[in-house]
Amino acid sequence: MFELVAEDLHAVMGEVRERTFALVAHLDDERLNATLNPIMSPLSWDLGHMAAYEDLWLNHRAGGRELLREDLAALYDAFETPRAVRGDLEFLRGEELLEYMSTVRERALETPVGDGVLHELVIRHELQHTETMLQAMVLAGIAPPALHGPVTVDGSGLEMIEVPEGPFVLGTGPEGFAYDNERPRHTADTARFTIGRTPVTNATWQAFVEAGGYENEALWSPAGWAWRTENDVTGHAGGPPNAPVVHVSHHEAEAFARAHDARLPTEAEWEKAAPELEGVGAVWEWTSSPFTGYPGFTPHPYREYSEVFFGDRYRVLRGGSYATHPRVASNQFRNWDLPERRQLFAGVRITR
């Protein structure tokens, strides 16, 4: 399936692991092992989880060998151990953690690459988890020095471009690596719409705050207003005026759009317009779409990656962010989270 040979994939695995360690190099063991935020995992748990996932998919399922540490299977299973309890568990720490990660990797380098799909799965899994780890570090105020915010854009987020009505092809084709929720590729139709040429900037968001956007209940959905009230959310910490606003929830994004007689795009609209837009990849962009399977969806390689999250609870985000590795981000990649979440490197692009 891939033109990459085993040596290439092994090199990428090494580069990704070096990047992972570089992102936490400024932290001591106390910070690595602590629960930095109630909705996030301890960073050491994430590191152990990466290795356990690699051992499961490359060494056990692809290589046919016993797990290196069968006793760790439940500990590092994201469904067996939800985030709320991970900080209380006896997860691997310090030298024991590093030894486990190293030994798993030594075994993985002996596993036949085959078509490369499982190796690519493991590579991207680690890259996605490092973004989650960066979320935790930002929440705790201990982000790595090399992490800088989104680049500036030439616009306010209120300048619109027109996208004509008609069909287009949505999703990823059958060749190459993709997650199950990106397939099958299919034709979708949209009516004519306009969409922001850029994501909304901090300056534009600040004007929304100063105009009383957080006090005007009419702008918010019932769930959004309840979230705002219960959590005493009265505004948003800004950044450079001409950079995209980041760390906003879906509730806030919806309210901002309504304040400008607009709405959030559907993910079909977003994907259709993406090639014409500025600032794609600066921040994740909330859509109005619930996370569901495409027509003809088939879970692969396990239903827990996507299917168990389908339904009305989660909203889709598109585009990637400044904290997303380019190997993960594409115009077809579908991220998802709960509407109240603000830890994501997420902003907003409006649609009419």
UniProtKB/TrEMBL annotation:
Keyword Transmembrane carried by entry: no
Residue ranges of domain Sulfatase-modifying factor enzyme-like in the record: 159-274, 280-351
InterPro entries found in the cross-reference section: CTDL_fold (IPR016187), DinB-like (IPR024775), DinB/YfiT-like (IPR034660), Sulfatase_Mod_Factor_Kinase (IPR051043), SUMF_dom (IPR005532), SUMF_sf (IPR042095)
Pathway the protein takes part in: Amino-acid biosynthesis; ergothioneine biosynthesis
Protein keywords: Iron, Oxidoreductase
Start and end residues of each DinB-like domain: 15-110
Name used for this protein in its record: SUMF1/EgtB/PvdO family nonheme iron enzyme
Upper taxonomic lineage: Bacteria, Bacillati, Actinomycetota, Thermoleophilia, Solirubrobacterales
